């Protein structure tokens, strides 16, 4: 049962992305800057997480922060890049194409990371079925774009 709950939560989280980007797009239009809209989004997100930590008294071991690998600190750069590009893509390509391409990029990167056992829990080799799955996503983007 717990697995199904997580499937639902992940689908809901995925559904939040186009909504978030739409809201960021509105902020970007008002501020006349997708970069500033991204900053607002990250600021509100950081405050929200801080409130969650305080309200639910989420604990962590401060001394452990020194054990975080240096390269892991770049995760914020990936997040910032994603949010800015999603806002601009939203305007230039439309919602379905933008998110179809985002999912395509996520699937390609996921396959490469799993195949090479990079930043994943367990390796999973690339095979023709997995490549076909990405091909179907690309085909879906083409259909959405053209019809």
Task: Please give a handful of descriptors for the protein shown.
single chain, 147 residues, mainly alpha, 5 helices, 76% helix, globular
Outline of the structure:
This protein has 147 residues and is mainly alpha-helical.
Word description of this protein:
By secondary structure, the chain is mainly alpha-helical. Helix content is 76%, strand content 0%. The N and C termini lie far apart (38 Å). The mean pLDDT is 94.
- Residue windows where pLDDT falls under 50 for at least 5 positions: none
Q: How much of the polypeptide forms β-strand, as a percent range?
A: under 5%
* Measured distance between first and last alpha carbons: 38 Å
Mean pLDDT: 94
Distinct helical segment count:
5
The total count of strands amounts to 0
Which helices and strands appear, and what pairs or packs with what?
Elements: H1 2-31, H2 34-56, H3 75-93, H4 95-115, H5 128-146
Helix pairs in contact: 1-2, 1-3, 2-3, 3-4, 4-5
């Amino acid at each position: 049962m717990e697995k199904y709950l997580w499937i639902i939560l992940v689908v809901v989280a995925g559904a939040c992305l186009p909504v978030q980007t739409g809201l960021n797009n509105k902020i970007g239009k008002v501020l006349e800057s997708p970069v500033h809209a991204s900053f607002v989004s990250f600021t509100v997100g950081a405050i929200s997480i801080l409130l969650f930590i305080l309200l639910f008294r989420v604990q962590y071991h401060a001394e452990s922060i020194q054990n975080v690998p240096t390269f892991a600190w770049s995760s914020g750069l990936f997040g910032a890049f994603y949010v800015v590009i999603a806002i601009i893509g939203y305007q230039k390509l439309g919602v379905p194409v933008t998110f179809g391409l985002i999912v395509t990029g996520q699937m390609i990167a996921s396959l490469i990371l799993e195949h090479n056992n990079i930043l994943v829990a367990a390796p999973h080799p690339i095979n023709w079925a997995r490549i076909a799955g990405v091909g179907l996503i690309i085909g879906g983007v083409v259909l959405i774009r053209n019809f």
